[in-house]
What we know:
Blueprint (H helix, E strand, L loop, with lengths): L21 E9 L2 E3 L3 E10 L8 E8 L12 E8 L8 E10 L7 E8 L15 E9 L8 E4 L9 E4 L9
Parallel strand pairs: 2-8
Antiparallel strand pairs: 1-3, 3-6, 4-5, 4-7, 7-8, 9-10
Amino acid sequence: LQNSPRRMSLATSNACCELPDLTIIAPSVAPQSIYSGEEVTVSFAEQNNGATTSPPNYISFHLSVDDNFTPDANGDIYLGEYFLNQSLGPLSQTILLSSQITIPASVSAGSYYIYISADGSLGVNECNELNNYASAIITVSDPPVSNLASYRYWFDNNFAGLISVNLNSGNGHYD
Length: 175
């Protein structure tokens, strides 16, 4: 099988499996560089490569520091899910999707993988449960810190009634 170009794919073929087989293809994230606490748009397609129609299913999103997807372990963070309220026909029917995901404010600066997992709730009996996910890489930065130490304001051109506000009083309180 390994030496024949036409037979090589038989080892991983789902042709004999009479179940759906969901995969995620073409994942992307915009913007790719954000501050923690901000939203990103995750775009992707879910595809059914199985021999039968897939029922509606949940697509889940996780954030990981490494390329080893381990949901709810190894520091991976669950980000939410998207309900695909549509069946996918057999043999490569694909649907393009996108979802807004908020990166938690508690996430520290660094590079991360956003994993998109087809049938994230494992509600669909599939040919292969190990090929359901894909990932996209994002860079998270700490939000900028304001360098504003103080400000002044006045009303109705009454400069004599100027009010000054000191933001760095040293005791953690605003003046």
